[in-house]
Amino acid sequence: MRILGQKNSINVRKVLWTCAEVGLSVDREDWGGQTRPTSDPSFLVLNPKGLVPVLVDGDLVLTESNTICRSVASRQRRGDLFPEEAAGRASVEAWMDWQIAELNTAWRAAFMGLVRKDPRFADQDAQKASVRDWNAAMTLLDRRLSATGAFVCGESFTLADIVLALSTNRWKSTPMERPDLPAVADWMGRMSDREGFHSYCRNGQA
């Protein structure tokens, strides 16, 4: 099994953390960023969208990080991470979808402008709006964690915690004003004994 993508990519790291949780050894190949370009024809054969990560497992080729995480957990029959029963699975998927559709959209201008220094996101008004929306989304997550008292989907750690912890780490690492969110802080602390958390989330990379 191979994972194609550079190690500093947040989406590659969520897949690597998932693989660590299930005890699955994978070979990672550098693609994207300052490494091999994803516009290379050999890469585009695997993913015409030109994005990382890509999972290659024999004849199986998967793209989209959250889909890969779900596939890996299902392959290893890890119902604790990705429940087999419909209601539990839907809850995990809903929060994973919220992460990639709503939370990622909120932080894009702030993170790309303030951290990556991307000139396309240099507009300060857009950055301020992004900070506001990002903090609002994180406050919503804090309320959710206050309600569960443990993890995003309830008492047990799931894939939803992996993808949202990485986004939270990015939020904490970005130089901006942010509210004090005690439930989020407690939740991050509850994951501090997990090897994948240290290797792929709180590892000095945003």
From TrEMBL:
InterPro entries: Glutathione-S-Trfase_C-like (IPR010987), Glutathione-S-Trfase_C_sf (IPR036282), Glutathione_S-Trfase (IPR040079), Glutathione_S-Trfase_N (IPR004045), GST_C (IPR004046), Thioredoxin-like_sf (IPR036249). Pfam families: GST_C (PF00043), GST_N (PF02798). CDD domains: GST_N_2. SUPFAM superfamilies: GST C-terminal domain-like, Thioredoxin-like. Residues 85-206 form the GST C-terminal domain. Residues 1-80 form the GST N-terminal domain. PROSITE patterns: GST_CTER, GST_NTER. Belongs to the GST superfamily. This is Glutathione S-transferase. It comes from Ruegeria aquimaris.
